[in-house]
Specification:
Elements: E1 16-21, H1 25-41, E2 50-54, H2 60-68, E3 75-81, H3 89-107, E4 112-117, H4 122-127, E5 129-131, E6 134-135, H5 136-156
Bound molecules: 5-nitro-6-ribityl-amino-2,4(1H,3H)-pyrimidinedione (INI).
Length: about 160
C-alpha cells in the first residue's frame, strides 16, 4: 500500500496574507469575504489575516513576492478579477497577473493560492463570486490551508 501524504484543513495558528486587487472591487470584495469565511470555517482567525490591496491584478505579483518573502506568513492568497473587455487590454493584464503569480509561487518556500478570476463577462464573474458557481476566493483559501498542512507534513517526514 502506498503511503499517502496530504494536508488537512485546519487553519488554527496559521498566518495568512491576502493580496487583493481593487479593480472590479464589487467582485474582489466578495472573493475576499469568501476567503476569510474559509479561514474561519477551518478554525483560523480572520482578524489575524493581513490584506494587502493593489490597484489592479497587474500589480499583484510584486506585492505577493514581498509578502511571501517577508517571513511573516505561512501562505499568501491572491485575489483579483480581470474581466474581458472590447480591447486586448484584458489579455495582457490577465496573462501578466497569472504568469507573475505562477512565477513567484514556484520560487518561494510558502504556498501561494490563485484566486484571480479571468471571465469573459461580468455575469460569469458574479457566478464565481458567491453565486451559481461558488466563491473562488473561498476555494483559493481552502487550497492555501491544505497546502500549508501538506508542506508541514512533508517537513515532518
Ligand atoms: N485590472 C484588473 O484587476 N482587472 C481588470 O479587468 C483590468 N482591466 O480590464 O483593465 C485591470 N486593469 C488595471 C491593471 O491591473 C493595472 O492596475 C493598470 O494597468 C496599472 O498598472
Amino acid at each position: 500500500m502506498a503511503r499517502i501524504v496530504e494536508g488537512n484543513l485546519s487553519a488554527a495558528g496559521l498566518r495568512f496574507a491576502i493580496v487583493q486587487s481593487r479593480f472590479n472591487a464589487f467582485i474582489t470584495d466578495r472573493l475576499l469575504e469568501g476567503a476569510l469565511d474559509a479561514i474561519k470555517r477551518c478554525g483560523g482567525d480572520p482578524d489575524a489575516v493581513v490584506v494587502y490591496r493593489t490597484p489592479g491584478a497587474f500589480e499583484i505579483p510584486a506585492v505577493l513576492r514581498r509578502a511571501a518573502t517577508s517571513g511573516k506568513f505561512d501562505a499568501v492568497i491572491c485575489i483579483g478579477a480581470v474581466i474581458r473587455g472590447a480591447t486586448p487590454h484584458f489579455e495582457y493584464v490577465a496573462a501578466e497577473a497569472s504568469k507573475g503569480i505562477a512565477a513567484v509561487a514556484s520560487q518561494v518556500d510558502i504556498p501561494v493560492a490563485f484566486g484571480v478570476l479571468t471571465p469573459d463577462t461580468i455575469e460569469q464573474a458574479i457566478e464565481r463570486a458567491g453565486t451559481k458557481a461558488g466563491n473562488k476566493g473561498f476555494d483559493a483559501a481552502m487550497s492555501a490551508v491544505e497546502m500549508c498542512n501538506l508542506v508541514r507534513a512533508m517537513d515532518a517526514e
